[in-house]
Amino acid sequence: GNSVTQMEGPVTLSEEAFLTINCTYTATGYPSLFWYVQYPGEGLQLLLKATKADDKGSNKGFEATYRKETTSFHLEKGSVQVSDSAVYFCALSSSGSARQLTFGSGTQLTVLP
Amino acid sequence: GAGVSQSPSNKVTEKGKDVELRCDPISGHTALYWYRQSLGQGLEFLIYFQGNSAPDKSGLPSDRFSAERTGGSVSTLTIQRTQQEDSAVYLCASSLGQVDGYTFGSGTRLTVV
Questions:
Q1: What is the DSSP code string of B30-99?
Q2: Chain A residues near residue B98 by CB distance under 8 angstroms
Q3: Quick one: pLDDT at residue A89?
Q4: Interface of A with B (CB under 8 A)
Q5: Taking the CB of residue B81, how many other CB atoms lie within 10 A of it?
Q6: How far from chain centre, in Å, is Cα B30?
Q7: Is B10 in the A-facing interface, judged by CB distances under 8 Å?
Q8: What is the per-residue pLDDT across B25-69, written as a single tens digit (0 to 9) for each?
């Protein structure tokens, strides 16, 4: 079946530091890949996505590239801000008709001023 | 409405009682999903609705869990004879049927004491 493995947290960085959150996946077929973000007290929001190999998703300074050869979709940001403190979830879509998402366990990021 | 609305936002119940969680999706969204987020865990898929029918109930953890959707809109997730392991945040999402159009609600935090 499908699965997503995320870098375990929590991750604590200083403002303007470089961020990488690793994500690898196992899936049949050709899944779409996603990063969702959950700010404190809020629901999950789609951060970025990529639907085929070598696609790069980007939003709000965050980027992730769909690497089929390494089955990875690592999240990166060059300079984090305090406002980026949140929980980040990597996810993939199943190729079945239900189109449900399979999520990783989430990575808590705290950015200190 | 403008977003996915879930109620109640918090629910504390005694072990053995039944609870009902409500999800009001974005108007016009045909697909509706329920997920469960346990402490320190990722999101666990529970059930998917397309219109009023549920083609995928594979994630419901036991027969104490059931869900319905009426009028292609509001959905209710019912947990009977609650147990302490049911304590979690229950998230609802809706979409027009495309997985990259998921919009999540803020969730219902269920605590079974």
A1: -EEEEEEE-TT--EEEEEEEETTEEEE-TT--STTEEEEE-TTS-EEEEE-S--GGG-EEEEEEEESS-G
A2: 99
A3: 94
A4: 4, 6, 32, 34, 36, 41-46, 49, 51, 89, 91, 93, 97-106
A5: 11
A6: 15
A7: no
A8: 999 888 899 999 987 677 888 998 988 888 778 889 999 999 999
